[in-house]
Known about the structure:
Mean pLDDT: 87
CATH superfamily: Winged helix-like DNA-binding domain superfamily/Winged helix DNA-binding domain
Low-confidence stretches: none
Number of strands: 3
CATH topology: Arc Repressor Mutant, subunit A
Radius of gyration: 13 Å
CATH class: Mainly Alpha
Helix content: 25-40%
CATH architecture: Orthogonal Bundle
Amino acid sequence: MIHAARLESSERLQRIYKLLKERGPIGATTREIDRICDTVCAGSGVAELRANKKKVKAVPERNTATGRRVFRYFLEEVPDDEPAFRLE
C-alpha cells in the first residue's frame, strides 16, 4: 500500500486531476501529464488519485522504439457538480 497524498491538499494531484478532467475522452499520456503538470512520475500520481477514490483508467497506447510502453489515462466517472480545484 502506498502513502498517498490527499487530493484536497496536494497541488500536484490537483493539477493531474484537473488535466484529466479537462481532457475528458481524449485523456493524457504519461509524458503529457509529466510535462503539463510539472511532475516526474505520472504513474505514481495516478496511483495516488486512485487511492483518493478517483476512477482512472489506463489504456496501453503503443510501444516506443526502445520498447517502452506508452499509456493514456482517462477519468472514468466525473460528476458535473464536482467542485473544481483552484490553483494559485
